Amino acid sequence: MSSDLGEGKGSTTALEVDMERQLEHWRENPTWTDQPPIIKVSVPKGSLCNLNVKVNVGLPPDAVYNIVTDPDNRRVFKNIKEVLSRRVLIDEGHRQVVEVEQAALWKFLWWSGVMLVHVLVDQDRRDHSMKFKQVKTGFMKRFEGCWVIEPLFVDEKLCFPFQPKTCEDYHSCTRGKGRIASTVSLEQLIQPAIVPPPPISWYLRGITARTTEMLIHDLLAEAARIRGSFDPGKSLEVHQESKDLHQIDQISDIKERWAFRRRLAKQYLKRFFDEPSQ
Fold it and tell me: What is the rounded average pLDDT of the residues 115-127?
C-alpha cells in the first residue's frame, strides 16, 4: 500500500536533517547482513489466515517509513502492478488518512494473477505506523493489518557497559556516531466471505505468504540501494541477477530461498570488493 505524505514544513526539515545524518553514518559504514524475515501464519476460526512478519532493515525508521508510504513506491514493490486511484481524506501533518485502490500481482509456484486492493490507509510518522483496512466487503470479508517500524541500535556495543533505552541515550553514548536500523513488523488478517476448504485454502495461504515475502525482499533491496552498499557504477550483471531471481522463484521452501539469497549476496559482495579500483 502507498499513500501521500503531507508534513508540517518545520517538523519535516528537522526530520530530514536527522535522517540525512543517519544515512551518512550508513554510507560511511554500510556493513550489514540481511536476515530472512520471521513469518508466522496462524488460522483463527472463520478466517483464511493471520500473518505476522518481522524483519530487520538496515536503514533508520524514517527512511523505511518513507519507502513504505511513498506514493510512487510501485518502483520499489514489484507486486504493485498499477495504482488505480489515491485520495487524501485527512492531513494532520504527521498523520494522514488516504484511500488507495491498486492492482496487485501475486505468484505462487506455477500460478500467478492480479487482484484488486481497495483500502483506507492511516499512517502516522510519530510512531512510524501504517494501518490499512479494506473499504468495501465483497469476496473478502476482512482484509486489514498494520505496519510498525521501531528503531534498532546497530552499534550498541559502543555503549558497553551502558544499555541505551532511547534514541537520545544511544546518540549520547555513541557520540552521535551510532547507526540506527529498523525492526519492521507487519500483521495482516485475511478473512474471505466464504472460507474455502482444503486444498484450496492451503494454496491461498501459500499465495499470501509468498506475496508478503516478495514485499519484504523488495524492501530489503531498496534499503541496500539507499545505503550505498553497492556501487551503482559497478554493474551486478542485470541479466545474471534476473536469472538468479528466477532460480529463487523455483524454490518452494522459504528457508531454502533465503539461504540461497544469502549465498548470492555474499557472492555479490566478494565480487564488489575483489574488483580493482579504477
Answer: 92
